[in-house]
Design goal:
By secondary structure, the protein is an alpha+beta fold. It has 2 domains: 3-79, no CATH class; 103-133 and 160-303, C8orf32 fold, CATH 3.10.620. Helices cover 32% and strands 17% of the residues. A 4-stranded antiparallel beta sheet has the order 10-9-8-11, sandwiched between helices. A 3-stranded mixed beta sheet has the order 1-2-3, with no helix packed on it. The protein has a two-stranded antiparallel ribbon with strand order 4-5. β9 and β10 form a beta hairpin. α3 packs across α8 and α4 crosses α8 (210-223). The longest helix is centred in the middle third of the chain and has 16 residues, at 103-118.
């Protein structure tokens, strides 16, 4: 590659090139850094361009000599999740603005996100990994290594097949478990607007409000065959009350006979639901015996 073209590439893309500093016939090649001042890389752009005259190497490769400031910058990007281990940038989730004029609009957006996310390969595999855990005969969950080394017939499924409560409950428990691959921490939404996140955003940053959490939960549950319903409630005085959204799961999966609440945002077991919601749905009247700041004023439902 000519020097002029090389300079053009480096200047236009703002990318460091690891080039050979010794002749080709020497066995002890050493990669040295050449390039412009560090600039933010475009999403998906390679950190290193692997051409015939360029050695692509990992950050920890002792043959690569990077200036301390460059190494610190790349290490910071790795820590913040901006750069993947293979050297490419992780694209940040995009923000789209849509008008939300009513509770119906809100539930429609959430249903759209749930249905879309439930059909991605990532969600399908995550849901199956949660319900496909293996245990010892005494009920202890086994690691993949323990499963491989276990004697024949000494391993069983942690959740019985066709156990709808067990499967949906496993998704619930995993979402509340910080050590789980699908673990999600509850946090507040933006101070001024409602935001609605896709599951891909939650894999990038595992913290969401109730809207994001039910997108994650609803997609996982639909991916393993469950029908889910969105429940939205206005709690407290109409002029200053709080809105909350959660799910109900149809159980059993094949021929449902009841709905079970799925609200991962509270430190309560699977099935817990905000007090007064069921009573309001029956009477369509707020319960005057409940304090005003906790009184259910309205409830909305939508099948996803």
């Amino acid at each position: 590659m000519g020097n002029d073209l090389m300079r053009l590439l480096k200047g236009a893309l703002g990318i460091y090139l690891l080039s050979e500093s010794v002749r080709d016939d020497k066995p002890d090649k050493t990669a040295t850094l050449s390039g412009p001042t560090p600039v933010p890389l475009r999403p998906g752009a390679p950190l290193v361009i692997p051409t015939r005259r360029v050695i692509g190497a990992r950050l920890g490769d002792p043959r690569v000599r990077l200036p301390a400031d460059v190494r610190a910058q790349i290490a910071q990007q790795l820590q913040q999740g901006e750069v993947r281990r293979d050297g490419t940038l992780r694209p940040l989730p995009k923000i789209q603005f849509r008008p939300v004029r009513s509770i119906k609009d809100r539930l429609d957006i959430l249903a759209e996100l749930i249905n879309g996310d439930s059909l991605t390969s990532e969600t399908l595999m995550e849901a199956r990994l949660v319900v496909g855990q293996r245990c010892s005969r005494d009920g202890r969950q086994l690691s993949p290594t323990e499963v491989r080394n276990a004697p024949p017939r000494s391993v069983k499924w942690c959740i019985r097949e066709r156990d709808s409560e067990g499967e949906s409950g496993a998704v619930f428990d995993a979402m509340q478990d910080a050590g789980s691959e699908i673990g999600l921490r509850y946090t507040g939404d933006h101070a001024d607007v409602d935001t609605y996140a896709k599951s891909s955003a939650m894999r990038f940053a595992p913290a969401e409000d109730c809207d994001g959490g039910i997108v994650r939960a609803g997609a996982l549950l639909k991916a393993i065959g469950f029908q889910v319903y969105l429940i939205a409630a206005l709690i407290g005085p109409v002029d200053q009350g709080n809105g909350h959204v959660w799910l109900r799961v149809a159980i059993p999966r094949e021929e449902p006979t009841y709905l079970k609440a799925f609200d991962w945002t509270v430190p309560e077991p699977f099935g817990w639901e905000y007090p007064g919601v069921v009573a309001f749905q029956k009477t369509k009247t707020p319960d005057e015996k409940v304090p005003a700041d906790r009184r259910v004023m309205d409830v909305f439902t939508r099948k996803v």
